[in-house]
Specification:
This protein is of the alpha/beta class and 401 residues long. 17% of the residues lie in helices and 29% in strands. An eleven-stranded mixed sheet has the order 3-8-1-2-14-15-13-12-9-10-11, with helices on both faces. A four-stranded antiparallel sheet has the order 4-7-6-5, with no helix packed on it. Helix 6 packs across helix 8. It starts with 6 loop residues before the first strand and ends with a strand.
């Protein structure tokens, strides 16, 4: 079977682009693409026709071919009073340079309504005015697009229905993880590391939780990422570890050390050679020698660190030159213990926050981000039937310089 106007296809769209600090790979799986009805740029559409399962097409897109090109008319200067700091009744929202906010927070602007959640970027905060941008965060970037045909389905008849612009769908979010104009994003005002529950973490983590916090599809994506980066014979630290490490079973490491909060969870983790019980929010010094580890992985936990710069400096100290730090996460967390800034950011901005940890530490290079969205939720997951898509996966990594 091949792709044509009489078939439906599942297609993985992967966009690769570069900012001034990192290489970014954003992946979206479009399910049941309808070539008779759905929208694509014409050159991309033509390349996708008459393809078989597992065939891949590549296309280099100039700025403006996926999202509208940068337009100076979409840059605005507003009065400071037009930014409604009281929009959220639970907290005061201050405009911060480089951050994204929903358009509905703005007042006195044509065609902007309270319910509008489309994000805009705050460019600069001045004494009595704010410079903002309505341009798409990818508006100025060339993009290498790779589309892979995952599956093809027969289609007996067309009866109308929703028309999707799949590249528009897949580009909602990407770009928000990059700096604006090369300047650091202001993530660190407004007490970003406050938490709802500021009691000792030992109390919260006293009881073991032998459950998966992500669905099997998302876990498989994370394991695949680790498999592509880690090598046999490495000494690996699983930072903020639990009862499972999501490391690939087929890779034989010299040693895997887990550092986490609950001894029963760590004892149950069969991937670990040994483990350390330590609260990084109380003691940031890592119990390893300088340059003694090849890789540090941190899965679904970076959002709980209240002293990230101290911890990242320690990670740099214990890694060998060229050693790898990989952080993966999704959009789920323990609400009492997550840091405040994490809950206030768009999902793609959180990759930007993790990048800033690495950049401002000053010892990491070859930085990357990765996102995976749109995969179907596995039938074995307890939320199958309630949620169509698998948990999204986000990753940030780099090497010690």
């Amino acid at each position: 079977m091949i792709t044509d106007s009489n078939t439906l296809a599942d297609i993985e769209f992967q966009m690769t682009w570069k900012s001034d600090t990192a290489t970014h790979i954003d992946t979206y799986t479009a399910q049941r693409v309808n070539f008779w009805r759905d929208c694509f740029p014409q050159p991309v559409f033509q390349k996708l026709l008459n393809r078989s399962v597992q065939e891949t097409v590549n296309y280099s897109l100039k700025p403006g071919e996926i999202v509208p090109a940068f337009q100076s008319s979409r840059e605005h200067t507003i009065k400071s009073s037009q930014f409604d700091r009281n929009m959220d009744p639970c907290r005061m929202i201050e405009p911060r340079a480089g951050r994204f906010y929903p358009k509905g927070i703005l007042t006195g602007m044509a065609n902007v309504f309270r319910a509008n959640i489309e994000p805009f970027r705050c460019r600069e905060v001045l004494d009595s005015s704010i410079r903002i941008s309505f341009n798409h965060p990818l508006a100025s970037f060339p993009i290498d697009l790779k589309a892979t045909i995952l599956n093809i389905h027969s289609k007996p008849v067309d009866r109308g229905g929703t028309c999707y612009d799949w590249l528009e769908v897949s580009s909602k979010g990407p770009g928000m993880q990059s700096r604006m104009d090369g300047k650091p994003t202001d993530f660190f005002s407004d007490r970003p590391f406050d938490r709802h529950d500021d009691q000792s973490d030992h109390l919260f983590y006293a009881c073991p939780r032998i459950v998966n916090h992500l669905d099997d599809q998302a876990i498989s994506v994370i394991t695949g990422l680790y498999a592509g980066m880690l090598r046999p014979g490495m000494r690996v630290l699983d930072l903020m570890s639990s009862w499972t490490s999501h490391l690939p079973d087929e890779i034989l490491f010299t040693e895997v050390v887990g550092l986490g909060m609950n001894p029963e969870e760590l004892q149950a983790n069969k991937r670990l050679n040994r483990f350390v019980v330590q609260d990084l929010n109380q003691l940031t010094t890592l119990p390893f020698e300088n340059g003694s580890l090849d890789a540090v992985v941190c899965t679904a936990s970076i959002e709980y660190l209240t002293r990230p710069f101290e911890v990242f400096s320690e990670i740099s100290r214990i890694l060998k030159p060229g050693g790898l730090l990989v952080m993966t996460f999704s959009n789920r967390w323990f609400p009492p213990k997550v840091i405040r800034i994490w809950t206030e950011l768009h999902e793609f901005e959180r990759m930007g926050l993790a990048l800033e940890y690495m950049i401002l530490t000053g010892s990491f290079e070859n930085l990357h981000t990765f996102s995976m969205r749109g995969l179907p939720r596995p039938e074995t997951d307890k939320y199958f039937g309630e949620q169509r898509y698998s948990d999204p996966v986000y990753a940030v990594w780099g090497q010690k310089g």
